[in-house]
Write a structure and sequence with these properties.
Helix content is 3%, strand content 55%. It is mainly beta. It has a domain of 119 residues. Strands 1, 2, 3, 4, 5, 6, 7, 8, 9, 10, 11 and 12 form a 12-stranded antiparallel β-sheet that branches. Strand 9 and strand 10 form a beta hairpin. The C terminus is likely disordered.
């Protein structure tokens, strides 16, 4: 099974709202690392995908309306685990504290709650093969990969990250 994680840096918050159950729902256009090992560290693939983050019983220190916000940096703490700039696609039932920082007028957004769900929505778009961070053969790190990426849309039947299938050079599915 492949592991997936979103890279918070350079993700874009496109919407944020509170639903009828007082859950904070955040829509993010994100770069998603997918790997058999540790996403964003071990070799794998990179995808562009909309991800929905739901913070249950959430409280927001600052909300926004109107325009998209590009994330400069992010820290998420779930229970006793702390994630710096990379967050796995999770459904955790422990207390969550999230701080996202931006440039410009809105400096930071903090959200706290009792549970965190991070799930992909919509179609994924293949961006690149990721050689791994710190590869001995001079491989690229995560920040370098964004600058060398190419966008290749997935076929409509492709499920995208989580249960990926790509076609090889001869059209044979590989997973």
């Amino acid at each position: 099974m492949q592991n997936s994680a979103i890279e918070l840096h350079d993700s874009v918050i496109t919407a944020m709202r509170t639903d009828d159950d007082a859950h904070v729902v955040i829509d993010i256009e994100a770069y998603v690392h997918v790997s058999d090992g540790q996403p964003g560290v071990d070799p794998g693939t990179g995808w562009s995908r909309t991800v929905q983050m739901t913070v249950f019983e959430g409280a927001v220190s600052r909300s926004f309306e109107g325009r998209d916000l590009r994330v400069y940096d992010g820290t998420v703490t779930v229970g006793s685990r702390r994630f710096e700039n990379t967050l796995p696609l999770v459904d955790e039932t422990e207390r969550v504290e999230m701080t996202l920082t931006f440039g410009g007028e809105v400096d930071a957004l903090s959200v706290t709650g009792t549970r965190l769900r991070v799930e992909p929505v919509g179609d994924a778009v293949f961006v690149e093969e990721f050689t791994g961070r710190g590869a001995k053969s001079g491989g690229a790190n995560a920040s370098e990969c964004h600058h060398r990426s190419r966008r290749v849309p997935l076929p409509p039947e492709s499920p995208g990250p989580g249960s990926l299938r790509q076609k090889g050079a001869r059209g044979h599915a590989r997973g």
